[in-house]
User: Fold this.
Amino acid sequence: MSTATVARRLATFRAAGAGTGDVGSVVDRAKQGGDLAARLAAAVGGSVIASPAGAVVWLEGTTRPMPIDRDRLASLPGQPPAGVPLVCLDTETTGLATAAGTLAFLIGLGWWEGDWLRQVQLLLPDHADEPALLDLLSELLPQDAWLVTYNGRGFDWPLLVARYRMARRPAPTHAGHLDLLPVVRRLFRHRMDDARLKTVETMLLGVQRHRDVEGWQIPTLYLDFLRGGPAGPLVDVVRHNDEDVRSLARLLAHLDVAYGDRIARQSRPRGDLAGLARSFVRAGRTAEALDCLEDAALHPIPLNAAAAAGRRVAEVPWWSPRARPDFGGRGSPPPMSDALRDQSGYRWTDERLAAERARILARLGRPLDAADAWQAAAADRGVLAIVAWIEIAKIREHRLREPVEALDACRVAGRLLERSRALGRPHARLEADLARRAARLRRRLAAADQRRLSASEAIRAATSARLGTPCRPGRSTTRLATAAESRSATSGLRAAALGRGEAATEPAVRSACLRASEAAR
Amino acid sequence: MTDKLARPLATMLYTARDFVQMFDIVETRMRTYAPAAVDTVLADLLAEPSIARGIVHHEVIPARSAIHAPFPDWLDGRITDGLRSRGIDALYAHQAEAIDAVHAGDDVVVVTPTASGKTLCYALPVLQAIADDPASRALFIFPTKALGQDQVAELGELSRAAGLTVSAATYDGDTPAPVRQAIRSAGQVVVTNPDMLHAAILPHHTKWFQLFEQLKVIVIDELHTYRGVFGSHVANVLRRLLRICAHYGSRPVIVCCSATIGNPAELARTLTGRDAQLVDRNGAPAGQRHVILVDPPIVDPSSGARGSALTLANRWALPFLRAGRQTIVFGRSRVAVEILLTGLREALREGFGPRSRVRGYRGGYLPTERRAIERGLRDGEVLGVVATNALELGVDIGRLDASILAGYPGSVAATWQQFGRAGRRQGTSVAVLVASASPVDQYVIHHPSFLLGSSPEEARLDPDNLHVLLAHLKAAAFERPFEPGEPFGPEPADELLAFLAEEGHVRQAGDGRWYWSSENFPASAVSLRAAAEENVLIIDTTPDRPRVIGEVDLFAAQTLVHEDAIYLHESVQYHVDRLDWDERKAYVRRVDVDHYTQADRAVTLKPLDVFAESDAVGGTRVHGEVMVASLATIYKKLKFVTNENLGWGRIHLPEIELQTTAYWLTAGQLRGAWRRDELDIALLGAGRAVQTIASVLLMVDPRDLGLVTQVRSPHHDVPTIYLYEAVPGGVGLSERLWERHAELLAGAADLIATCTCDAGCPACTGPRLEPDVDARTLALRLLAELGADATGRGAPGASSAA
Assistant:
């Protein structure tokens, strides 16, 4: 096709009324636009920083006191080390996709100068000035700094990296990135309806915003300005971003003050502590995790907040990794279902705490304590009890080598599963797992019986030869082992027991040994 | 002593064995299902009068030996060693030619028949690039996501044999998120489809920078499928792709592979915007092949109705199956496949034939089922398969003995791809095309040179279709701002960008560049399978969770998804329960019925602009832009195979307008005396024939070209035949029709002249409207006045039927 044809097609296309009605007004307004940077700076009260790469509007925010004990903060899992500079960062963009055409037009930064939080905002007056914005951002981000963001790992930072790649220049490096969204999810999911920063502010920080601009309005406000519209409405956007950055700092301060040491966090709700325990486990700090759970158990059980208020719970709970983060976009609320209300995980009951403890203990190699904790968790009235009994069976079978007792636990779990099925809530996976486990245990027991039979024949012969009278060796050895437990004479006992050529009761001895060693610890 | 004893013993043993063998032979002869050579089966078939009568043309394509070429010097030693270890000691000539060109940095388009080793043509340059530099990347584009698996598997085997580690991965809608991340950062060969490239990869190119920075080779397989609307979209996606490559500083070589069509090099140039070297001298060996064109006998001479193509196809297939020869039968629809399959199994049941070794293969089968059938075909476990064109492209099933096509698959390229399923390197193979009663089928079957000569059909697309172009220009601006004066396609895009700016999609910033300035994500608004943005979504309500199975543009929706229509999607039938015109949604339900629906539309046409006009015999030929107002009126229910009318209904939909391109011819200088009613019938009859020929020449569905005839056009004041494109803006068909005007008219005259009917039939001048009028003679008379010579396109092979 020749040039003429495309041009001609465009002409007939237009003539056929393909264009929109308000074409003229948009163009006219664009012409009136004038110097975008100056107009923008005047409207939002900033100053223009011009460079060969372009102009950026620099907004110096109010510097406020925001003391943080960095050592105390660093003691929390996943938090930045005490020495490094922190930079809070939040962007406003022209869309929600981190794709190539989405522009970060406003970058809010906040960093500490002593105990004071200094806030700066960089505002882009025109597409063409983006190189200047990126240059300035590179200058402002120290290489050894940690970024503090809210969903910045998934959105803000990848978007900025994309902008640098678009401009074919390297993105600034930083030492670490603390995304507070997963922290909030882990600690506060049990008492929040969604993970929006605004919710965090009201629920945790005691901040209420007034006349705040909605997230979904922001792209339109900025794009309207670019097309020649008024710069005035952007004042709201700037304030919104300023609040966001400050809330990042406030949230960090809140974590520091309220959770930074054990005494302080003892007064926090038990769900927070349970979440914190998980964070500690992720960081490999199990002792502190156990402490947290212990403290948590001291608190009263919270009501199921959502259920108590008669609210309905989302199909996919907002804290689930499968749920898309909600930043107050325009989208309709997710589909609701009553069915999930009871299993939504809002209630940190004693049993659930016990289960958490049991998992940690098992990982620490303390099977007996883990088994005890699972016993506590088995008091649950829901599916957790079944899981607990299966876990007990696992520990008894593999760690304590008590197949008979393991089979007992399987039976309990089986009864619970049966009841659950009768009530119309079958758990197919658990049933299958349990069936396999029980079958294996039975097989093993039968084999062990065979061995014991032949072994006891031999022993009987041996002992009767030594003592002159027949006896029942299994019982006596077990009793001996139990006695030894109190005396912590593990190694001697083991040698003694095994020295008697006693094969059949070895599991009992082993468990006694384990018990003794744990008691000694 | 021992000797004396041994000899009679041995004799006895031999005798016993002979006896058993003899018994065996007798036993085998008694069964109907005796293994036999292809030649024998064919000879038997040809000797059978009822079969032989239907043969219109029988051509024997002689066996061809391989033309080899040595491995080029530059090919990495590891790769040549790997090839040798796989028993490949030399390349075929076309492979060597292709990889040499790629090595020299030239784009190539490789045109070779099925199973001629085309995978090597692109696998070797890719392996070489990776051998040179492991950071090199390659992008393979297949038209749909199901394809390409065999090629990737072959690439994997080659790289393993060469001792190279090549990570090749498919990136499509089914790729799980964690895997996607790995492919983005480390996939050396990324296999994808145009839709994915368009909606997922290009808009997120910053996440793919490793790929784009190091992209060395782009492979576009099944090039001939990129035509019409889809092709026009893909051409624009490729413009975007190359633009992004330029952004990251890479200049990949493009390797295209195409089935045999008339204009592969031109197609590659239109699609990629770059010149490509044509490699079409096939060096692969082939055994002797019989190509047989069959026409079902006429059952009713007055209406021109013919016997069933399906029944006849089965009669051809059965002897091969009984003889244990691997046979594939192609049906045109899922229903046809079912009918064919049932028929074959029924016939094989009598006498306990290998009934269970005959399988069906069509869209709607699960991937695992398909894989099992493909494997079965390769290892001989499956003897016969009845397939839709789902088996036409790219799937490796090895080579069979006979391929039988029940109905012309719509294009010469597809016909040869289906023929190509039969054809061993040595030994005879048989390819049979059984025509249906449709005009296109009849034309093709009676013009064997059409199929057997050099391919007359062309793949056409128009990347500059304004609807398509603007949609992709938006996406391109989203991906990267436009420099002032930067071309998109052959010419600067500024004027179009200014138009987009008026609508608020882009804006020209202070530096003169055009930036995307909307919060929308433009790629998500465009479907590569439809021209305009406003489409009707087709929603399948059969499963528990309704899902979208496709979309059609408004113009097509009028006649395809009106209420109570039977909509065919991937050869599966759906009944349209409800069409929500305002919401642009059609709710359909899976059904299994023996009929299809055909809707009529009332069309008024008004020329808007003339792009080109020139004189022709008896009038003028014109190419230009038109406005078509279309109103769907009624639909008919027609029975499969027999096309028997089962009933009709009204369609209640608003009239819609379609701005598109058209080709028209006026007959202003007719010499003869024409009565108005005669002229009306002559125009319509000639128009129908022209429409048929046009659809054949340009590889499109006849429905993609609308026909309007006017005895006295309000625009020209003379008799006019319009052929308009049923796609908003057109895809370049009409321009080409204008250029091939003489060929069209000659073909049309030839089609009518060689038709065996007495006074016009659905196969030539269309269904007869008035019983006493000889539409055939009138149309021929008109065409002759317009300069068409009825013997213009010779029909060398048609004689045997006449």
User: Anything to note?
Assistant: The first strand of chain A starts at residue 47 and ends at 51. Residues 361-471 of chain A form one domain.
